[in-house]
Amino acid sequence: MHKIVGLDIGSYAIKAVELNLTKAGFELSQFHVIPSPISALESDISELTALSESLSQLFTTNKLATTVVTTIPDKILFSYVLELPRMTEKELSKSLEFELAQYIPMPLSEVSVAHQILDISDSTKPDTMEVSVVAVPKTVVSKYIKLIENSSLAVTAVENQITSALRCLTDPQIQLPTTMFLCLGASGTDFSIVHQSSVRFTRSITIGGHVMTRAVAEKIGFEEALAEEYKRTYGLLPLPQEGKVRVALVPPTEALITEVRRAQTFYNTRYAPDSIKRIMLFGGGASMPGLVEYLATSLEMEVEVGHLSGSLTFSKEMLDREAQFKSLMPILSVSLGLAMRPM
Ligand SMILES: Nc1ncnc2c1ncn2[C@@H]1O[C@H](COP(=O)(O)OP(=O)(O)OP(=O)(O)O)[C@@H](O)[C@H]1O
Ligand SMILES: [Mg+2]
């Protein structure tokens, strides 16, 4: 039986999901969420050593498979949807070189680039084409891989987070209405607007779980650990006696909503108006009490928390943890999707 681990190294938590790849499909054999020893992957080497140690310990103690698929945070990717005149694939390669030189603040020889032509049959500008481009500095990729391989792991692939999350939050058999995905991590929130399984818009902002916790800590005068607990317990719930937590969380949530509206306006002018039908949340912050209701009321849109879609079976050892796994789906969707990546 072949085993693979999806590894999502966040600034708050490290997530690892191990799957058995059986003839019948994916079987969950382990999952782990452990605190992350880093504040940002771009920090100094001492913290990177701590990360290598955490990884080694996590994998050795649990006898996790050492073949891993991992991800690079959206915030360090350059990701664009370019609007270009219609042209052939050959002309496009030339044109992209020219276009990207204007967008990417480093020599093109130092970045790895992938592109995809998007289907834009609903565009307001029929004589143009749209190309989604993702670029990442080669040094960053090699640093990531080296870091992980220091812990005696073999990295078979690196991919961006929304691609992996889509694999387990959506069902390819079902046509998805145009959806704005919000990945609410600790260091920020990543926006992706997905139309018929292609990602048409991405953006990262620094309002995330950490900012939310700080807001509670400052407003109420709590230590961060206590603020974190209150945030998770009361969140945006309009309770009379705990209203303070909500009051503290409203400003960062409103700032997030402003960004959602901005993305929506941008999208609506480029494609059919009112085409974004719903918002799907994932990442740790998706579980904040009251958030779904707050966003739905404010934005007058359908808002839901991502849940497991598609088929996954549970190994004998995992059977009694099925409910727990499903409740952690928002946090685990990137790591699960990574493990499901086709070889
Ligand atoms: N029940 C909850 N209610 C509110 N916030 C929560 C809850 N559970 C987790 N969080 C928040 O989610 C964040 C962690 O989520 P996640 O593991 O997705 O982040 P990360 O991947 O480590 O961060 P990043 O990707 O930004 O580096 C923390 O800020 C935490 O406070
Ligand atoms: Mg994350």
TrEMBL record:
SUPFAM superfamilies: Actin-like ATPase domain. It comes from the Bacteria. Gene3D superfamilies: 3.30.1490.300, 3.30.420.40. Pfam families: PilM_2. InterPro entries: ATPase_NBD, FtsA/MreB, PilM. This is SHS2 domain-containing protein. It comes from candidate division WWE3 bacterium RIFCSPLOWO2_01_FULL_42_11. The lineage of its organism: Bacteria, Katanobacteria.
